[in-house]
Design a protein that fits this description.
The strands form 2 sheets. Strands 1, 2, 3, 4, 5 and 8 form a 6-stranded antiparallel sheet that branches. A two-stranded antiparallel sheet has the order 6-7. The chain is 28% helix and 25% strand. The chain is globular and about 40 Å long. It has 166 residues and is of the alpha+beta class. The protein contains 4 helices and 8 strands, in the order E-H-E-E-E-H-E-E-E-H-H-E.
Amino acid sequence: MIHESATAVLLLGSNIGDRALLLSGARLLIENEAGTIMFRSGLYETEAWGKTDQPPFLNQALIIQTELSPVLLLKSLLGIETELGRTREVKWGQRTLDIDILYYNSDVIASSDLKIPHPGLADRRFALVPLCELMPDYIHPVLNISNEELLKRCKDTLEVKRLLEI
């Protein structure tokens, strides 16, 4: 089903394999299968969150324009993760690729399969730092504060380091 055009904000992450190449491959597949990338943040190297005994992640935020509904967008992104070698064995475990939907327009969705805005966003520097590069003034539709304010209030102390473009 075609959905009217929407703006979605995604977060890409990878911490095994050639991380930069995997994110590049993910961007190509997103363009082919999910929507047009309008803006992308720089690349950030971040310590692993949740399960810390693993290699650091490379993260990047994207703003895309999509014709897919939120559910079809999720399905497409899960397919891209699988195509690029993602397996789900350990919660917060290492992975070739992770793609999260942070925002979809200013919609609030709370189903068993999909929660938008991403429920962990306010607690994760690795998501907020690249997000604030792209849209610091955007107001979180549930918490009613800006991304920049979310970052200021975030209690996560893990280092998020911007890399030179690869």
